[in-house]
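Hi all, long-time lurker, first post. I run a small reading group and we've been trying to get comfortable going from sequence to structure in the token notation. Rather than ask abstract questions, I figured I'd post a concrete chain and ask someone more experienced to write out its structure so we can walk through it together at our next meeting. Sequence below, copied exactly:
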Amino acid sequence: MPEATLGGSAAAIWASEGAEPGTDGALTRAGGVRGEADIALGSEELAKIGLRFEVDGKIATITLDRPEKRNAQTFATWSGLARIGRTLPEQVRVVVVRGEGPSFSAGIDLRMFTPEGVPGQGSFASAAVLDGDTFGERITEAQEGFLWLRRPDIVSIAVVQGHAIGAGFQLALSCDLRILADDAKFCMKEPALGLVPDLTGTKPLVDLVGVARAVEICLTARVVDAGEALRIGLAEQVVPREELEAATRRLASALLTTDRDAAAATKRLLQGAVGRTLAEQCAAERAEQAVRIRALFGGNAAGAQEPSQV
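-- Answer (accepted) --
Happy to help. Here is the structure in token form:
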């Protein structure tokens, strides 16, 4: 088993950056003032926390870059992911999330389970003494690093090779699409450690495989290999490892062939469909289509507005 396989709970979080919880899982500054958390991190800052961020036209690539630790995640990882989401260049339409080396991500850094923790970031022991409100705020901040990958204006792709355990599994689940190498292995390790998956992974897991299968996967903490992941809906594609990069390029290029506004509107419809009745979904479709028709055929002057969530 890789070095860091102890799941990915966000129960202990770094010191607050002074941000306030905003809508849709985002953090906003009081009074709309641009703060430090709203400024993009440079490549050197990202490298210190084990991340790379590159933009090529309309495609952005986030790389977990601690291969010597199997891309084990820390609280700084989640803060860095959140910062990337807040400062994502406007032209980006596709976000690729990948891991450097043999594994996508083998879970949380084992140092978080020690009294000393990760220098400057604390540990589970330090989180245990937080009051309830502060505890919840810290988890909310960590979850932001995963939530933004579901935004309607982008399509996110997890490119998974090797182990994706705990926080790694949840990061893959946070993406819209998953392409797996044939050696990929998912595992939700947290319950076996007395924790729960708290990095937004439980809902997409249930949405994809159903409650019963999700219970079985989580409470046995077993490994789901690439073949099974494809069969039960946890992956859209499985390819030989040497073809992973090419398959990702093909998918990203195909996604960019669709009109940007139509793609965002369609993703909003699909994301909202599960929680709506058929009548409500039909109403949402009418509202979205009215905006698209007016935008395409000159109806904007008639007062078309972006449809609200139904």
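A couple of things your group might point at:
The two ends are 45 Å apart (CA to CA).
The longest strand covers residues 51-56.
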